[in-house]
């Protein structure tokens, strides 16, 4: 049986400023109503709402009243599409990243057609998390009874991770329990915003720095329960912040004692967090220190590469750091995992948890200060029976020096040598030329049709041509009109008949994000889903009436992007990176890089200097379509060798240059005049149905 207690009224009062008497009254009102046990909090919000700090205080009052942290299920209502819930997450990202609201899950309630399905999913989530909470409290209270401790006071922050001892969050010493697995976490990801420990443990903790005034303990999470085992994460990232090899011996000794205190009962695993790119010498130094000075026996290492967008990023990172990884391969190296922060984050964290569980079964033992345990390394580095029989400090030190020297040697070779086969490939060279400043997780095969490009390339037998390209036009398209498609057709015709004889394989209409259009047009906004639908209808009608080749498509990347508006230069550069990463390279479709041509009007070119700057990028060109009444002096001054292609109007397209979405909206609103000259019949019918 489920009992729902409405506490909406608390949100109408500034509960942050109430006195102790009023707070006590709230406690008394809340506690009896659920028999002193609360299983779940439902936070109902809307897709456009930023959660008020008042809710944080309400949550604290509830937690205090029940002496337990309660899981929170967020329900985002009034949604019309999948991207709406992503929009809510983005608007509340600052709040969620800080774990002020320790939410369990986010579900969304569709406004209309999928509402019943949404309710079923919400009920399943309620049953799941309420049951998990009850099992957790029962299990922890049983443990507390046998150990004479108080009742458990925590809940999960990810569906599979449970914070099991929040009452011990502020430790007075560094005493470590022997019943849990201990993980050293070293984050060398150069300030990457996402904290892996927070994602794994589902909580935030106060960061303490190793400095002259060294705290009694390193930052550590409360034990987390995963698969019925307890895990504790110890953040040793401060080694790189202090410059461990540059501080004096006294400071090194103090840091060493703190780390050794954890290692006395054994360290099970080193989680080495890196960003895409080469490992720094500082990171290698710190890893050597943890292996040689702290963890006496072989300790598995998991390299978690954050910022990966796909498997190719992981493979690229392995190539760039191959020699360093080989140095650790026979010592303690275990696996590499790519962590996708923006896209499929929960899936990546699940895989990371599984790897942690697999490789953290046997703890290391702490090393003696006057001895180096060399047996781990003898097979890799050729130390034989004579070395084993002596077991002296000098031999151990020689092994340590040999290992460190080898790691540094291969690291230096990695940074100075580009002889690996991977670095010789055309794909790698292209990646270096294009750069890596695109928008992560923007284009994908679901929101952008690349099959149309592949089909046209195969049909035209242009796989080996150096002149393959695609066109893209961006803008509000609120709604789409004949000039949008007409300009693409005009540019295609113009460049295919030019001296270079370009081969246009596809053309993309890319309606921009709702946030930009709403700021520009306000209530006249047609939402992104409908604008994409209208573009699709326009393309279908255009191809049917003109009997032209199927080469046009709609990209939903801009309109569906969860992180808001992205301007046309980033859109164009990211499309170039996305398409070339899939289609160009050894064993792939295209022998030469694919060009992306950004299409715009002369009025846009004259007022926006970013068009000219965009054309300076590798494998990108800009086609500027003439427009009646616009000044041509600036574009006429450009050298013919520039990446700007000026496309004059022909008789057929001259009348289209005056068409605008503004005129369509005005005529539609006033029911005045024929719209068929401005846009397509199918678009007009759909516009009238969604008004």
Labels describing this entry:
691 residues, Rossmann fold, 3 domains, 8-stranded mixed sheet, 17 strands, 15% strand, globular, nicotinamide-nucleotide adenylyltransferase activity, Cyt_trans-like
- Give the strand order of the largest sheet, numbering strands 1, 2, ... along the chain: 4-5-7-8-6-9-10-11
Question: What do we call the CATH topology of the largest domain?
Answer: Rossmann fold
Spans where pLDDT lies below 50 across 5 or more residues: 98-104, 143-178, 206-216, 365-428
Task: Work out the radius of gyration.
Answer: 31 Å
Give the tally of structural domains: 3
Structural class: alpha/beta
- Count of beta strands: 17
Number of helical segments with 4 or more residues:
29
| Shape annotation | globular
Protein name: Cytidyltransferase-like domain-containing protein
GO molecular function: nicotinamide-nucleotide adenylyltransferase activity; nicotinate-nucleotide adenylyltransferase activity
Domain Cytidyltransferase-like: 473-667
Organism: Rotaria magnacalcarata
Describe this structure in words.
The chain has 691 residues and is α/β, with parallel strands linked by helices. The chain has three domains: 17-134, Rossmann fold, CATH 3.40.50; 180-361, Rossmann fold, CATH 3.40.50; 438-690, HUPs (Rossmann fold), CATH 3.40.50. It is built from 29 helices and 17 strands. Strands 4-5-7-8-6-9-10-11 form an eight-stranded mixed sheet, sandwiched between helices. The chain has a six-stranded parallel sheet with strand order 14-13-12-15-16-17. Strand 16, helix 26 and strand 17 form a beta-alpha-beta unit. Helix 9 packs antiparallel against helix 15, helix 11 (322-329) packs antiparallel against helix 15 and helix 17 packs antiparallel against helix 23 (568-583). The longest helix has 32 residues, at 115-146. The model is unreliable at 98-104, 143-178, 206-216 and 365-428 (pLDDT under 50).
């Amino acid at each position: 049986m489920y009992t729902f207690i409405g506490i909406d009224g608390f949100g109408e009062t500034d509960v942050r400023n109430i006195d102790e008497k009023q707070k006590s009254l709230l406690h008394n009102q809340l506690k009896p109503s659920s028999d002193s046990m609360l299983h779940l909090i439902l936070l109902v919000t809307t897709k456009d709402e930023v959660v008020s700090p008042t809710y944080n205080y309400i949550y604290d009052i509830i937690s205090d009243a029940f002496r337990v942290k309660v899981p929170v299920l967020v329900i985002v209502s009034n949604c019309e599409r999948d991207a709406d819930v992503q929009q809510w997450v983005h608007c509340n990202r600052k709040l969620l990243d800080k774990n002020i609201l320790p939410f369990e899950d986010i579900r969304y309630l569709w406004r209309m057609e999928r509402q019943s399905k949404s309710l079923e999913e919400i009920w399943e989530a309620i049953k799941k998390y309420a049951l998990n909470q009850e099992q957790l409290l029962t299990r922890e209270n049983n443990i507390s009874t046998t150990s004479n401790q108080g009742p458990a006071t925590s809940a999960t922050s990810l569906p599979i991770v449970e914070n099991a001892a929040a009452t011990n969050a502020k430790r007075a010493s560094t005493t470590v329990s022997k019943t849990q697995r201990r993980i050293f976490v070293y984050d060398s990801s150069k300030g990457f915003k996402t904290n892996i420990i927070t994602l794994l443990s589902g909580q935030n903790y106060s960061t303490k720095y190793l400095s002259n005034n060294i705290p009694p303990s390193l930052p550590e999470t409360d034990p987390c329960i995963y698969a019925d085992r307890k895990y504790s994460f110890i953040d040793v990232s401060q080694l790189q912040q202090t410059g461990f090899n540059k501080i004096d011996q006294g400071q090194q000794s103090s840091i060493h004692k703190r780390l050794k205190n954890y290692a006395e009962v054994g360290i099970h695993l080193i989680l080495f967090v890196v960003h895409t790119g080469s490992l720094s010498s500082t990171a290698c130094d710190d890893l050597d220190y943890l292996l040689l000075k702290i963890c006496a026996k072989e300790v598995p290492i998991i390299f978690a590469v954050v910022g990966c967008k796909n498997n190719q990023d992981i493979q690229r990172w392995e190539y760039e750091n191959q020699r360093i990884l080989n140095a650790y391969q026979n010592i303690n190296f275990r696996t590499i995992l790519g962590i996708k922060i923006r896209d499929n984050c929960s899936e990546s964290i699940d895989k990371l948890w599984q790897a942690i569980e697999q490789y953290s079964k046997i703890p290391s033992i702490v090393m003696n200060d006057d001895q180096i345990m060399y047996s781990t390394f003898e097979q890799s580095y050729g130390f034989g029976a004579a070395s084993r029989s002596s077991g002296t400090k000098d031999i151990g030190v020689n092994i340590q020096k040999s290992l460190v020297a080898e790691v540094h040697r291969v690291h230096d070779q990695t940074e100075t040598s580009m002889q690996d086969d991977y670095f010789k490939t055309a794909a790698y060279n292209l990646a270096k030329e294009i750069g890596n400043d695109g928008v992560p997780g923007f284009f994908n095969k679901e929101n952008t049709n690349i099959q149309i490009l592949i089909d046209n390339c195969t049909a035209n037998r242009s796989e080996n041509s150096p002149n393959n390209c695609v066109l893209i036009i961006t803008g509000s398209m609120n709604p789409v009109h004949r000039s949008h498609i007409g300009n693409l057709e005009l540019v295609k015709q113009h460049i295919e008949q030019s001296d270079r004889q370009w081969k246009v394989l596809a053309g993309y209409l890319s309606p921009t994000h709702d946030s930009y259009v709403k700021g520009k047009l306000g209530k006249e906004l047609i939402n992104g889903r409908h604008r994409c639908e209208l573009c699709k209808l326009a393309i279908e009608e255009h191809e049917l009436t003109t009997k032209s080749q199927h080469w046009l498509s709609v990209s939903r990347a801009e309109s569906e992007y969860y992180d808001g508006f992205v301007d046309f230069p980033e859109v164009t550069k990211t499309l170039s990176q996305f398409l070339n990463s899939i289609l160009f390279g050894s064993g792939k479709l295209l022998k030469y890089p694919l060009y992306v041509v950004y299409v715009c009007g002369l009025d846009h070119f004259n007022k926006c200097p970013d068009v000219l700057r965009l054309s300076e990028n590798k494998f990108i060109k800009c086609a500027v379509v003439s427009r009646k009444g616009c000044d041509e002096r600036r574009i006429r001054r450009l050298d013919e060798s520039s990446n700007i292609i000026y496309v004059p109007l022909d008789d057929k397209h001259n009348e289209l240059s005056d068409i605008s979405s503004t005129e369509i909206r005005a005529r539609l609103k006033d029911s005045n005049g024929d719209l068929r000259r401005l846009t397509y019949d199918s678009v007009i019918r759909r516009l009238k149905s969604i008004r």
